[in-house]
Recover the amino acids of this structure.
């Protein structure tokens, strides 16, 4: 790679990227950046209307599939059908998630199971499905979307924090296990992002969030998208096993 131009370092024209929850919010922001870097992009989710609209905006070399990540048994079939249609999946972005905010005493077993199934079990099922193809190619990148809650004690988010913290441990294990096969595994921990997970805080809450953010603003989906491109491109080829906060300084501020 020595002597490569920056364009080549970040060029993803040889990559096929599968993004869960890719129709809106952070998922769509990442899809847009991967497409701008030249990748073929496949977005999956549960809502066809949003997926279709997203693909119309993404343009050529993009497609969608309706898929619920909590249907764990369908992950292998989804990946197999996509590989037959477009070739090997070289990048997987495990982005699909649900937010959950309740006091501990009101958090039910069903709440815990639903959040864990979406964030952790669904991500692991798809990771398990893409790894054989990546091993055969001796290259690939798996990216998990963690959270500030992976590092900070945010009240009333027990289920969400347990799942997002679990992803950081998974990154450590898989990065070590899969590195000999040329597969890199990383995570991004977003801060407060405009349109992230559909959250729209009121004016007072926005003021409070910005006051706690050293850079003094909300992030944008593209802030996460370009970080994802770096981590999954040749530019990040010696980076594996990290969870990178992209949060305007929130996680390092006092």
């Amino acid at each position: 790679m020595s002597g490569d131009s920056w364009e080549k370092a970040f060029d993803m024209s040889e990559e096929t990227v599968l993004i869960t929850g890719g129709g809106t919010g952070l998922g769509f922001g990442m899809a847009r950046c991967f497409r701008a870097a030249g990748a073929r992009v496949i977005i999956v989710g549960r809502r066809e209307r949003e997926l279709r609209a997203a693909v119309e905006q993404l343009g050529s070399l993009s497609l969608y599939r309706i898929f619920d990540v909590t249907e764990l048994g369908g992950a292998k079939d989804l990946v197999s059908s996509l590989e037959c249609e477009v070739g090997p999946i070289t990048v997987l972005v495990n982005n699909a998630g649900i937010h959950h905010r309740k006091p501990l005493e009101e958090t039910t077993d069903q709440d815990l199971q639903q959040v864990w199934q979406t964030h952790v079990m669904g991500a692991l099922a798809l990771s398990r499905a893409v790894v054989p193809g990546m091993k055969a190619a001796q290259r690939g990148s798996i990216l998990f979307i963690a959270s500030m809650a992976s590092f900070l004690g945010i009240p009333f988010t027990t289920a969400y924090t347990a799942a997002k913290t679990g992803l950081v441990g998974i990154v450590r294990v898989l990065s070590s296990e899969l590195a000999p096969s040329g597969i890199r595994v990383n995570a991004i921990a977003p801060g407060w992002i405009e349109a992230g997970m559909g959250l729209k805080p009121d004016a007072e809450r926005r003021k409070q969030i910005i006051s706690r953010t050293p850079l003094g603003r909300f992030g944008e989906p593209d802030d996460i998208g370009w970080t994802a491109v770096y981590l999954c491109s040749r530019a990040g080829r010696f980076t594996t096993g990290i969870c990178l906060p992209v949060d305007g300084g929130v996680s390092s501020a006092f």
